[in-house]
Amino acid sequence: MRAHLRAIDAVIAATATGEFSDAASAAEKGLGIGHQHGVDGLQSGHAFMPPEMLAYGSAMHMNARQLAVTLRDAEVTGDIPAVLGALQAVTQQCVACHDAFKLTRGD
Ligand code: HEC
Question: Which residue, judged by its Cα, is nearest atom 6 of ligand 1?
Answer without folding.
Answer: 94
